[in-house]
Design a protein that fits this description.
The protein is mainly alpha-helical and about 260 residues long. The protein has 2 domains: about 180 residues, no CATH class; about 60 residues, no CATH class. About 80% of the residues lie in helices and about 0% in strands. It is built from 13 helices and no strands. Helix 2 packs across helix 9 and helix 8 runs antiparallel to helix 9.
Length: about 260
Amino acid sequence: MPEATRAEAVEFDGEMRDAAPRMRAEFARGFLALLPLWVAAIPSGIAYGIAARGAGLSPFETQLMSLLVFSAAGQVGALALLSEGLPRPLLIGTAMILNAQLLLLGLAAGRQLRPRWPARLLAAFFLTDGAFAVAAGQGRLRLPVLVGAGVSMYTAWNAGTALGLTAGRGLLAVRGLGLDFVLPLVFLALLVPLVRTRTTLGVALIAGLGTVALARLIPSGLAIMVAGIAASLGGAWWSTRPAARRRDETDNHSEARR
């Protein structure tokens, strides 16, 4: 091996060894930051596990779906179609539509992180709405934080599925604790720190109201995607106006002084 190549390899190994502790710390930060969402993820996983058994899936099939699909909306939607005996291509298409919002999140994460393909595939598998919101709320988006948050959600979802399989229908009573109300509040708590300017506030309001309106007409995942794209385009256009740009700069400076 030429001396220059050997020196470059040694330098790269040294950089990786120096970066490893930082990456582990960021992964742990993302994992722990998502723990509040476990209060909704685990009961939802329990309900899915019980519903899957009721739909005729074996315990192995039920847990395998959570391990490989890792989508509450997609898995529950597939169960509803399975009970009607619909063909598998329709199941796959429905699951993709119900998770259409992940396309926007993936584009946003890829644009900011620009990871290599192995890391890109890893982040894509563990990407969820909650993981992205938690990672973005930690400051500048970093891949270890995003993956750590995703692994945390993956752990909670699969633990809930396993509990639903083992403990049975008696655990359905946990939904009486108001967790259907808690989940939106948790996501709202994640959103609020990200709204730092009047433009982002407007985008969030338009996306939220648009999703509510469109969800009455089209699947919820597609509604989130369409409303998100429309709100983002509107926000991008509005932010090009000089007056809006000045107000956003003022808002950012005020936020930085707090």
